[in-house]
């Protein structure tokens, strides 16, 4: 870790914390019935729960995983020898790790920004662009990929992009005549692109902070891989669009035109501000704050979203202060006792959307801490370093395939990424692989695999959205025959496959490889 | 580092055995031990570090390369200072 911040006490705090982690790794302070391997019970049980819930039952519920991690921590305690207070205290130790806190702060900011530009009709701007291009059925999937990638890069959430595009671009594309399977694949590919590249993406943030690299530098360094895969994917959608069968829908209506809002494209500036300031090396909190300010001003100035759409206090009407201050643009009164009483708006909703993931992250890091203190982490790490990752090419291949495998099993990609991140860090450091490179390997495979397999969370959210179109009021022509089964789409998530392929080739050939001796990360976005 | 360099750094194929010049000062993680002496493994190149503290493993140090053999990609270096720690 190289923290070149100019605040010495902060750096000392981080150094002290890392020294504690090192001490915890070298000394098995918690003894388990069954030896060090039993310290992996909380994490192993959680992985089994996650596979059962998301992979087998196809329930994409992050709070469900929170319950899984809580139960796993309780079960693990029964295998700990001696005083359980040590086990319990280790949970607290884990939850106060800076690596979790840093990601959490960045997520809260990213959530506010993403929701603000979504409420500012950015999707409407993309719809207008698609409508203005008047593309036919063969080109529609390729154009959908580019626009979905643009939205995902702006809002940093592949799931959000998949939901927005499955509910609007998908039926529009089907009406135009585009192949539904290819169309769904293009939407998922766009989600992969943004999840991988966006500075406000949850996976980007995790990949950077766990590998001690600044977020802006990580985004810049992964551009070369992302663009290679994106060009190949775009060409593939053009080719597949011209050879795969198209569909014919009677009674086509102008679905896109009704949703178009050209001014929504102004948020390309908001996104540009975040990317530019982050890549220039400013703290991610500062970079996103600037993005929020620009987006909020643009929303009001261009009439895209009112102040109350971004922040609103809904006070009971029988409160005197609320009555007298009701002229404020962010204050409104509602009937006393109504369930409308509360705070709302994009700033509120954007941050709140991350709450389940934040709790899950804290608990997973606590589970990892127990594994470190019990000796399980070191045992797996030593096995990998001594038997599998015995030279730098094999080490990188292990990182690529290890990340891909965990993501194939745990289909909520951020949770999977947090679970595998310590191994990527340690294996990479043992060969002095640069933090940027480690972060890129970690995030590319996390982003790609999270949107390919039929049980992946990203695929399922889109599938649910597409299913809901059947018989809906706005799309009465949309029948069950247009619903794409998750088992059909996996070969057509071209950007995901190419991104994975780029990194397999990179690991085997040394393409893009940088060592810690080549360059140092800029100031890490620590809180 | 300029914006252009940030985007294009690392573009190309990197050897698995990087080479260093005597007198070159670099920053690297201490990755293991060769007998009693700590070593910094950079890719598949190994530098034996002299003068490093006993608990240097997994810390990031600045070191000065003293000798380097281009044929077997091994060398010796002198410990200068500790500049960072492992991520985990």
Automatic annotation (TrEMBL), chain A:
Residues 1-12 have a biased composition (Basic and acidic residues). It comes from the Archaea. Keywords: Antiport, Cell membrane, Membrane, Transmembrane, Transmembrane helix, Transport. Residues 1-20 are annotated as: Disordered. It is found in: Cell membrane. Belongs to the NhaC Na(+)/H(+) (TC 2.A.35) antiporter family. The chain crosses the membrane at residues 32-52, 64-87, 99-118, 138-156, 168-193, 225-251, 287-307, 348-372, 448-470, 490-513. Residues 210-497 form the Na+/H+ antiporter NhaC-like C-terminal domain. GO terms for molecular function: antiporter activity. GO terms for cellular component: plasma membrane. This is Na+/H+ antiporter NhaC family protein. It is a multi-pass membrane protein. Pfam families: Na_H_antiporter.
From TrEMBL, chain B:
It comes from the Archaea. Residues 1-81 form the DUF7513 domain. InterPro entries: DUF7513. This is DUF7513 domain-containing protein. The lineage of its organism: Archaea, Methanobacteriati, Methanobacteriota, Stenosarchaea group, Halobacteria.
């Amino acid at each position: 870790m190289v923290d070149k911040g100019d605040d010495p006490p902060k750096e000392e705090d981080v150094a002290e914390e890392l020294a504690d982690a090192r001490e915890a790794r070298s000394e098995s302070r918690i003894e388990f019935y069954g030896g060090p391997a039993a310290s992996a019970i909380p994490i192993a049980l959680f992985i089994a729960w996650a596979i059962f819930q998301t992979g087998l039952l196809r329930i994409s519920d992050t709070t469900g995983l929170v319950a899984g991690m809580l139960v796993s921590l309780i079960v693990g305690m029964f295998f700990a020898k001696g005083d359980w207070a040590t086990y319990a205290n280790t949970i607290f130790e884990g939850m106060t790790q800076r690596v979790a806190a840093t990601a959490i702060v960045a997520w809260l900011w990213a959530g506010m920004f993403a929701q603000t530009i979504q409420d500012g009709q950015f999707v409407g701007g993309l719809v207008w662009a698609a409508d203005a291009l008047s593309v036919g059925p063969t080109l529609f999937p390729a154009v959908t990929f580019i626009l979905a990638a643009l939205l995902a890069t702006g809002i940093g959430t592949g799931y959000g992009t998949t939901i927005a595009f499955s509910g609007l671009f998908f039926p529009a594309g089907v009406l135009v005549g585009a192949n539904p399977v290819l169309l769904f694949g293009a939407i998922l590919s766009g989600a992969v692109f943004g999840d991988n590249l966006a500075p406000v993406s949850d996976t980007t943030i995790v990949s950077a902070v766990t590998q001690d690299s600044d977020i802006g530098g990580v985004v810049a360094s992964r551009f070369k891989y992302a663009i290679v895969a994106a060009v190949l994917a775009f060409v593939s959608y053009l080719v597949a669009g011209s050879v795969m069968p198209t569909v014919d829908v009677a009674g086509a209506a102008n679905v896109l035109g009704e949703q178009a809002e050209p001014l929504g494209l102004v948020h390309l500036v908001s996104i540009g501000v975040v990317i530019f300031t982050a890549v220039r090396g400013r703290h991610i909190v500062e970079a996103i704050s600037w993005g929020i300010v620009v987006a909020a001003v643009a929303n009001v100035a261009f009439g895209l979203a009112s102040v109350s759409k971004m922040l609103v206090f809904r006070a009971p009407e029988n409160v005197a202060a609320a009555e007298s201050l009701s002229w404020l643009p962010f204050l409104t009164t509602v009937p006393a006792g109504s369930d409308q009483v509360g705070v709302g708006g994009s700033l509120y909703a954007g941050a709140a959307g991350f709450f389940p993931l934040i709790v899950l992250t804290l608990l997973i890091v606590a589970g990892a801490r127990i594994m470190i203190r019990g000796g399980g982490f070191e045992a797996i790490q030593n096995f990998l370093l001594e038997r599998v990752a015995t030279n730098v090419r094999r080490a990188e291949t292990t990182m690529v395939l290890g990340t891909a495998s965990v993501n194939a099993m745990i289909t909520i990609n951020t949770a999977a990424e947090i679970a595998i991140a310590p191994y990527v860090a340690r294996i990479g450091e043992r060969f002095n692989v640069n933090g940027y490179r480690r972060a890129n390997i970690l995030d590319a495979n996390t982003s790609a695999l999270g949107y390919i397999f039929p049980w992946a969370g990203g695929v399922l959210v889109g599938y649910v959205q597409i299913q809901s179109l059947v018989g809906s009021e706005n799309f009465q022509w949309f029948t069950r025959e247009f619903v794409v089964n998750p088992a059909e789409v996996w070969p057509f998530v071209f950007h995901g496959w190419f991104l994975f392929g780029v990194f397999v080739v990179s690991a085997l050939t040394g393409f893009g490889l940088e060592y810690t001796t080549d360059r140092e990360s800029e100031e890490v976005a620590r809180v | 580092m300029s914006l252009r360099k940030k985007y294009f750094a690392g573009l190309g194929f990197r050897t698995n055995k990087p080479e260093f010049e005597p007198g070159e000062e670099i920053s690297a993680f201490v990755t293991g031990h060769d007998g009693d002496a700590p070593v910094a493994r950079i890719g598949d190149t190994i530098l034996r570090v002299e003068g490093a503290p006993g608990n240097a493993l997994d810390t990031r140090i600045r070191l000065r390369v003293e000798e380097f053999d281009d044929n077997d990609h091994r060398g010796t270096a002198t410990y200068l200072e500790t500049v960072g720690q492992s991520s985990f």
